[in-house]
Design goal:
globular; alpha+beta; nine-stranded mixed beta sheet; 11 helices; 2 domains; 402 residues; D-Amino Acid Oxidase, Chain A, domain 2; 20 strands; FAD/NAD(P)-binding domain
Amino acid sequence: MEQQTLRTTDILISGGGVAGLTAAAAFGAAGFTTICVDPQPPVTAEGEAGADMRTTAFLHPSRAVLERAGLWARLAPYAAPLQIMRIIDAGGAEPVARLTRDFDAADLSDEPFGWNFPNWLLRREMVARLAELPLVDFRPGVATTGLVSRESGAEVTLSDGSRVRARLVVAADGRNSFIREAAGIPVKTTRYGQKALAFAVTHPLPHNDVSTEIHRSGGPFTLIPLPDRDGLHSSAVVWMERGAEAERLAALPVPEFEAAMTARSTGLLGPLTLVTRRSVWPMMTQIAARFAAERVALIAEAAHVIPPIGAQGLNMSLADLSCLLGLAEKDPAHLGEAAMLAAYTRRRWPEVKAREIGIDFLNRASMVEPRPLRDLRAGVLGALYSLKPVRRTLMRAGLGVR
């Protein structure tokens, strides 16, 4: 009977979002038998209900992980390069740019900072890649419902009645991770009362491969380059505001919303035209007390959640994966054992905590309402930028390069 079946695998990945799919491709390409499950089949077309309207900017260090997983060749034709990270302070009496500072990737190397992709497209290409890998069994529509771990391995019960015995269970099942809770790992959560609107726009002026964060109050308004859309220049937008204001904006009729977002963008790219639906996401910072338990490793939002500032979120997730994969390949005979997982937490937790503190500070600074504090924010930005060694250090830190 199906509920009595027991399959053995090297790795069971719980979660089929972008991080989980990347992990499945990476471990499968590295020679590990891998099962990846997710309760929701991935939505792989922009117009389908439930499509993830957010975008992901893979920073330069993340490309190596994607290449090892056999994903980069699939994704490269759809990439929008991010050559310049621009920060604009528009915190004066009127919503106009009063301070603009550019961080140019050319100051570090001949490569861009990274490349931007729509999340629904990432899922499409990643699912296609998994179908090419004989060691990967992807099971969409199947959830993890039970976890029992022992020193010798972990046994996972799935919603289709089957059971899997794995040497390592990778929790990539999001901020409300079932695996993390089942493993008894607590989390610390900070809520900001913010929400982010995510959508795509077209505009008459080219973005010139510049990703722009515009700070006023409530949170940053960020324009991230996308490839041209039907012959028109296009960008993804993440607009962070306090919760009630975000919900009000999301409910506006399209003409009023377009006027509001054009004003909030300081008119930088001309009038913005909404070309996708608007999705709304709550903002929080969250970090697990540790990133591993017996036969379990946490990655991505199961381990940490941060606001979408500086393109850090998924790139931190791929750094988790890179670390875990490196440990697995270094000593495959001891995959998932206590020493390996202790090393994983030891390497990743302090790095993630440091970035969480930095992003929390930047987000709180972006939310300030009183004019004197907005003036102080602009002054600090100008002072940091004027010091070239500091500017280069900030850029390298943002990329995760030591």
